[in-house]
């Protein structure tokens, strides 16, 4: 069942989950301050001792912020929600709220492949669930706002990001590079330039041919299914 009522509550709840998760990231560092004060550590010594925690906090903060921005952008296209959409959104919220745990684990055990896998795997799960959300929104009748169609760049970009998170997960678990495996995510931009625009152009050419065929047959050309699929669309999830 699709309904427009309660959509704001779903979005506000998810925003609150992301805000709480980001707040939880910094709490382990705050707890270390009192111990540092008892040992009369300087600021430089405190930061040096907790460098791994600071690194984990910075990475996780950036990841949660990026994923939340993608979620926020995605739900701007939504005008209603279904029960399934709400439950998948709960699954995404779970991957966000649990991220402080693998962050703490990897900060203490950064050389352990299992810790790295737990950390990157949680991020990969979040990105993959977000992609599932996008597909569900696009495929469920009545959910997507027809005035705000999803762009090809956003949809393919989400798939690319999820795939790169999975690649980073495999590299982090099977090789000793640790968190450096996350550098694979920097391939997202080049891959989008390589794949997204050509695909969008092919879709637009297909629409043009369909429109020409309908015109020759005396029928009204089909609606612009390429709307939102422009290769130059700046939206990116």
Automatic annotation (TrEMBL):
It is a multi-pass membrane protein. Keywords: Ion channel, Ion transport, Membrane, Potassium, Potassium channel, Potassium transport, Transmembrane, Transmembrane helix, Transport. One of its GO terms (cellular component) is membrane. Pfam families: TMEM175 (PF06736). Coiled coil: none annotated. It catalyses: K(+)(in) = K(+)(out). This is Putative membrane protein. Belongs to the TMEM175 family. One of its GO terms (molecular function) is proton channel activity. Residues 211-237 are annotated as: Disordered. It comes from Glaciihabitans tibetensis. It is found in: Membrane. InterPro entries: TMEM175-like. The keyword Transport applies. The chain crosses the membrane at residues 12-30, 50-69, 84-104, 116-138, 150-171, 177-196.
